[in-house]
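Hi F.,

I've been meaning to write this up properly since the lab meeting, where we talked about keeping a consistent format for the predictions we share between groups. The idea is simple: the sequence comes first, exactly as it goes in, then the structure tokens exactly as they come out, then a line or two of notes. No screenshots and no reformatting. I'm using this chain as the first example so we have something concrete to point to.
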Amino acid sequence: MLIFKILYENLYYFSFQDK
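Output, unedited:
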């Protein structure tokens, strides 16, 4: 699922930016 992949990547990105 592309949507799932995007959501997952977005979460990862958010976590990275939060650091």
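Notes:
Helices lie at 2-18.
DSSP finds one helix and no strands in the chain.

If this format works for you, I'll send the rest the same way.

G.
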